[in-house]
Specification:
Keywords: Signal. There is one protein chain. The protein is mainly beta. The chain contains two helices and 15 strands. Strands 1, 2, 3, 4, 7, 8, 9, 12, 13, 14 and 15 form an eleven-stranded mixed beta sheet that branches. A four-stranded antiparallel beta sheet has the order 5-6-11-10, with no helix packed on it.
Length: about 200
Amino acid sequence: MKTVMILLIALIFFSSCESDDPPATLDVNSFQISGNTYNTGHGYLLLDDGPNFTNGFGLGFLNGIMIDDNINGASIETTTTHGVALWVDLSTTPSISEQDVTNQIISNTTYNLNEETTAIINITNYTNTHTYNGSTYGEPDEPGATTYETGATGNGTVTINSFSVNLTSRTGTIDCTYAFMDNNGVNITGNYMGSFDIINEF
């Protein structure tokens, strides 16, 4: 009986020690919803195609490839199953150039996300599809997927830890973390650290 008590006390002690362990950290280049993690290996800076240019920007993080062209606009490879689009309004006054917009994206700064910020998962269908370099691209069929949009009642922020961009090569690098709540109270948290391509999405 004494041996059983000692074992029980030891079990309780070690269980209480385990509860002091720090929570698991989020995978790099991913977002999390309700305990589920969605990896996002591809990053994009989303800019207005102007002129004039909307004084704001978007950040797209996906598990697939995004492209844009003069015929089809921005589109996503149809193997993509999830991603986030984070939208920031810098000002209501239009900008005269892309450089004017990107010069306002400053490291060590936190920006509020607007009502169009969205996470989308479980994408299975695409519309307006087309083929480019042997791969199929299109627009995600949102009614067939699960979406989380900030809308009028949600909110969130993105913190830019570091940022660089080359408007000639249409590439750059970013290190950021983000968190937002959708209009139904669901929380989404994520991060991205790596390179991005520029997409003239809107």
